[in-house]
Amino acid sequence: MMNRYRVNKKYHYLLLFTAAVYAYLLLKIVIFKTLASPLDLFTGNHPDLRSLNMVPFDGIWLHGLSFGYNLQAIIGNIILFIPLGILLHLLFVNRKYPLLKSLGLVVASSLFIEGVQYLARIGVTDINDLILNTAGGAIGIAIAITLIKSIGATNAKKSVAILGAAIAAILLILNGLLLFAN
Predict the structure, then answer these.
(1) Which domain holds residue 19?
(2) Using CB atoms within 10 A of its CB, is residue 80 exposed (0-12), middle (13-18) or buried (19+)?
(3) Which residues pair with 123 in a beta bridge?
(4) Domain count, the chain
(5) To pair with 151 at 20 to 30 A between CA atoms, which of 22, 36, 56, 121?
(6) For the chain, how far is it from start to end, CA to CA, in angstroms?
(7) Would you say 125 and 115 are in contact if contact means Cβ atoms under 8 Å apart?
(8) How far apart are the C-alpha atoms of 148 and 134, rounded to whole Å?
């Protein structure tokens, strides 16, 4: 029994490692993309970009910009949050109300990012981003639920933990190489 507990803990920690690397990369892509240094977020040494859109679906398709740009912006917001839904649901699968907890944290994560963008004046705070990010997280949760139903919770956790940790390690190495090269 103890050996099985250690194995499950190992995969749980691999999922946490993957989630931490994902969170780092997500913040780097969304929050720190326009900053020369993360410290610029606190010093104000960045372009002053504050915009707020609280009307759902208003401006989701920007006229005057190409079809490809609009599609990339919409799909990108969805795809960025699919891994979060998968990871959160697998982390909460053995707890009470895993669907509510994982979906609630997806929404809270998106609200946090939008709030930081608004408060730090580093981007557009947009209800459409919240809607699309939540849709992406929900898709991720649906993928996790499908995995759990098809191969079982333990195997789903193991598979995602191993694959996720391998991808996370590769992305960290590539990120380190990029930082070193610049």
Answers:
(1) 2-181
(2) buried
(3) 50
(4) 1
(5) 22
(6) 49
(7) yes
(8) 21
